[in-house]
């Protein structure tokens, strides 16, 4: 599970980020009919989760630098597979 100690929920921007992170976390586990399947829950006995991610342009600067908010979302997605 990713931890976000640097978010200060008394700040409107950080509160919005925290709310969106919670929605993302919920959405990762929710199946969307006709669109995608949810990521299954991890179990020690019966589930092996494998994810791929094209990291070539992750921090190249070619498309601009990533914001702190974007890095939080990336961390949340990656943590779903750890």
Structure description:
The structure is a single chain. The protein has 82 residues and is mainly alpha-helical. It has one domain (12-79). The chain contains 2 helices and no strands. It has helices at residues 12-28, 68-79. Helix 1 (12-28) packs parallel to helix 2 (68-79). The termini are close together. The mean pLDDT is 79.
Question: Quick gist of this model?
Answer:
The protein is mostly helical. It contains two helices and no strands. It has one domain.
List its traits.
globular, about 80 residues, mainly alpha
Name the poorly predicted regions: none
Instruction: Estimate what percentage of residues fall within beta strands.
Output: under 5%
Radius of gyration: 15 Å
The mean pLDDT is: 79
Give the helix proportion (percent range): 25-40%
- What's the tally of helices? 2
Label the overall shape. globular
Helix-strand pattern, N to C?
Answer: HH
Oligomer: single chain
Strand segment count: 0
* Alpha-beta content class: mainly alpha
What characterizes the major β-sheet?
A: none
- Determine the N-to-C terminus distance: 8 Å
What number of structural domains do the residues give? 1
């Amino acid at each position: 599970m990713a931890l976000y100690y640097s978010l200060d929920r008394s700040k409107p921007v950080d509160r919005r980020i925290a709310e969106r992170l919670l929605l993302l976390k919920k959405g990762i586990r929710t199946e969307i009919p006709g669109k995608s399947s949810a990521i299954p829950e991890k179990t020690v006995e019966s589930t092996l989760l494998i994810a791929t991610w094209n990291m070539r342009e992750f921090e190249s600067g070619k498309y601009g630098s990533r914001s702190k908010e974007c890095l939080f979302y990336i961390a949340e997605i990656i943590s779903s597979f750890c």
